[in-house]
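Support request from a user on the community tier.

User writes: "When I paste my structure tokens into the form, the page sometimes reloads and wipes my input. The last time it worked, I copied everything first. Here is what I submitted, just in case something in the input itself triggers the reload:"
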């Protein structure tokens, strides 16, 4: 784990920040190559990207504040001074979906066919972003005796000092590998079917929600970091994962999967 990738004098480049920037860049570059297939010209493409980026950042931050209300209340977390830190993925996803719908009304495009492409980019972006979590030490796992347990012990890491030297589940790597596999499956299998109109538009995105929700629900059992508010017997992220799976499964059942 390397929280700081480069340190030159007073300048520090965090591993997490670089990975998140790389995740956005990789997703955007892939989508840019698919813009003709999506039916977007240059102007519409970039306007859509800006809308989704704003929605993802705003949604992720608002949900982080919501689940960290205790830290805000007692002063451990400052609303504006610590604004760079802490984002919740599910909040970012909801925010991006909302802004995507607003962009649909503004730019006039078909929502669900485009969502299929963004599902692939999102999966690969998540895989890269989780490597940043690994570098920062956040989203760490429970102690384990398995041979691949990771040992932390670097200043600046999000892992508390009492866990330094203790092998932990590399939950960040678990999710990164799962996200990469989901993206690969969507790209090679489902997206071509959607492009040939063999399946209903939006099915690729719904499949992503189901697959990622299942992965996140299971990995949450191995996580050991403080994630703010919870609603037993599951964490907030697990409840959101279950809600996403249920909503996506219901949508596929009502809309059908095979194109008529």
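"...and here is what came back when it finally went through:"
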């Amino acid at each position: 784990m390397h929280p700081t990738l480069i340190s030159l004098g007073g300048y520090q480049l965090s591993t997490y920040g670089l990975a998140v920037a790389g995740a956005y860049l990789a997703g955007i570059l892939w989508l840019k190559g698919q813009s003709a297939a999506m039916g977007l010209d240059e102007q519409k493409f970039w306007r859509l990207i800006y809308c989704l980026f704003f929605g993802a950042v705003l949604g992720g931050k608002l949900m982080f504040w919501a689940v960290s209300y205790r830290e805000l209340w007692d002063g451990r977390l400052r609303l504006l001074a610590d604004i760079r830190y802490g984002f919740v993925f599910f909040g970012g996803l909801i925010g991006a979906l909302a802004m995507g719908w607003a962009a649909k009304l503004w730019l006039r495009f078909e929502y669900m066919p485009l969502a299929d492409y963004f599902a692939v980019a999102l999966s690969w972006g998540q895989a890269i972003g989780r490597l940043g979590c690994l570098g920062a030490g956040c989203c760490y796992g429970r102690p384990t005796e398995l041979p691949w347990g990771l040992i932390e012990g670097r200043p600046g890491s999000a892992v508390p000092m009492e866990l330094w030297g203790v092998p932990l589940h590399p939950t960040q790597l678990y999710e990164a590998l799962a996200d990469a596999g989901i993206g690969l499956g969507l790209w090679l299998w489902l997206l071509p079917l959607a492009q040939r109109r063999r399946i209903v538009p939006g099915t690729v995105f719904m499949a992503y929600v189901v697959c990622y929700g299942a992965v996140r629900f299971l990995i949450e059992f191995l996580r050991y970091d403080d994630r703010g508010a919870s609603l037993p017997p599951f964490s907030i992220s697990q409840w959101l994962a279950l809600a996403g799976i249920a909503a996506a499964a219901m949508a596929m059942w009502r809309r059908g999967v095979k194109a008529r």
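Agent notes: The reload is a front-end session timeout and is unrelated to the input. The beta strands are 4-8, 11-14, 230-231, 234-235. The longest strand covers residues 4-8. Escalated to web team.
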